[in-house]
Amino acid sequence: MHASSLRFKRPDFAFALATGWTLMASVFFLLTAALPVHAATRPSSPVQTQIDALSRGSAAVVGIQVTAAEGARSARSLGQERTGSGVVIGADGLVLTIGYLMLEAQQIEIVTQDGKTLPAVAVAYDIATGFGLLKPLLPLRGVKPVNLGSQQDLKTGEPLMVVTGATVDGQDSDVSMTQLVSKRAFSGTWEYHIDSALFTSPPVTAGGGNHSGAPLFNQRGELLGIGSLLVADALGENKRVPGNMFVPVDLLKPILAELQRSGSSQQSHRPWLGVTSTEQGGRVQIIRVSEDSPAEAAGLAPGDVVLAVDDSKVATLESFYKKLWARSAPDAPVTLTVLQGADIKTVVLKPQDRMLSLKRPAGI
Q1: Is the distance from CB of 189 to CB of 276 less than 8 angstroms?
Q2: Smallest Cα–Cα separation from 176: which of 153, 144, 210, 147?
Q3: Other CB atoms within 10 Å distance of the CB of residue 147
Q4: What pLDDT does residue 271 have?
Q5: Is 198 a residue whose pLDDT tops 90?
Q6: What is the DSSP letter of 48?
Q7: For 122, which of 184, 213, 297, 363 could close a Cys bridge (C-beta 3.0–4.6 Å)?
Q8: Nearest of 278, 279, 252 to residue 265 by alpha carbon
Q9: Which residues, at least 6 apart from 358, have a Cβ–Cβ distance to it below 8 Å?
């Protein structure tokens, strides 16, 4: 069986784990789920404990359906209708997901594993980490919250589990086996950076877009991260290995109380220019400028190369973002040195606080 096909529907979950999980740890993603289980091959107590833990984690996963508000800026890139996954992390039904699903949401629904659709309200959206929190307006009966794990002792090659939620059109939840291939910093093209992200392969594509917000579990059934992106370079090092990027829950723990209290972390209130950029050969090049953004107002355009922020040279997305965010106030003017065609120009922009430029979902 090819590694990319190691998926099974939830009814086969315990069986597949019992016959395949331990073997998968030593043989690259081989599952023997097609083989009959005889009395002599019943799982030992430690294996059964592992299966029970993973089953509990899997049972806490929900589907998420979002409709963005009319006129939402984010609909241009994310669409008006969005589908993803989340996982229950609180006894009160608090669900953790990836935040971009909730951007400017008008209506949020949770899809349970038995096919029920419950209305939900946004609790928090955190630009700095990318996490989103929401809560159902009706009780999630019989669902226990997962335990939060840590990437601290996570080793490359370790087998992991990804679960995607059910959908409103009746598509079942999926369980996929994958492995960690790298841990490293990640810079997004959309003015986003985290100092540590988890990269797995083979890629999880089950459930269409439901890998967005899908939880990543270790072998103890602990939550390690939340799915953000499909990537072409999961291994890094300029090698094209397809996979997924997960935001580690280590970033959530210090700010969880703050998110529940205020709807975002203090780190999320930072300068935003409205540019989509790439990093190639020691150059930061703009590839898109958002409408009605500070960058558009200042005359920046696709193809411009950012050379410096306030006279400090930048050669990577990470350095570009960090110099921008290190400023004392989100809306303080910033000076960019840019290469436009053959000309080097100085451009002064007045950034925005991104949190104040978006329509807030009801609840935040």
Answers
A1: yes
A2: 210
A3: 15
A4: 94
A5: yes
A6: H
A7: 363
A8: 252
A9: 73, 74, 103, 104
| 278: phi then psi, degrees, rounded to nearest 5 | -125, 165
CATH number at residue 149: 2.40.10.120
Q: What is the pLDDT of residues 132-150, one digit of tens each?
A: 999 999 999 889 999 999 9
How many domains, the chain? 2
Q: Is the pTM of this model over 0.70?
A: yes
Q: What is the predicted pLDDT for the residue at 231?
A: 94
Give the tens place of pLDDT for each residue, 269-324. Answer: 999 999 999 998 899 999 999 989 999 999 999 999 999 999 999 999 999 999 99
Domain assignment present for residue 363? The answer is no
In a domain, 340, yes or no: yes
Q: Is residue 239 domain-shared with residue 283, that is, in the same domain?
A: no
- pLDDT, residue 193, reads 98
Angle between the N-to-C axes of helices 45-59 and 13-26, in degrees from 0 to 180, rounded to the nearest 10: 120
Both 49 and 162 in one domain: the answer is yes
Span 249-261, mean pLDDT?
98
| 117 in a structural domain | yes
Helices (H) and strands (E) in the chain, counts: 7, 21
Whole-angstrom Cα distance, residue 198 to residue 204?
Answer: 14
- Say if residue 238 is exposed, middle or buried (CB neighbours under 10 Å; 0-12, 13-18, 19+): exposed
Identity of the residue numbered 359: K
Distance, CA of 313 to CA of 295 (rounded, Å): 19
Considering the domain architecture, whether residues 325 and 273 belong to the same structural domain is answered as yes
Q: 26-41: per-residue pLDDT in tens?
A: 333 333 233 333 444 4
Residue 350 structural domain: 269-357
What is the distance between the terminal CA atoms of the chain, rounded to a whole angstrom? Answer: 46
SS3 content of the chain, % helix, strand, coil (to 5): 25, 35, 40
Lookup result for tokens 């400017």: 104
Residues 322-344, buried b or exposed e (16+ Cβ, 10 A)? ebbbebeebeeebebbbeeeeee
Partners of 148 in beta bridges: 223
199 and 180 in contact (C-beta within 8 Å)?
A: yes
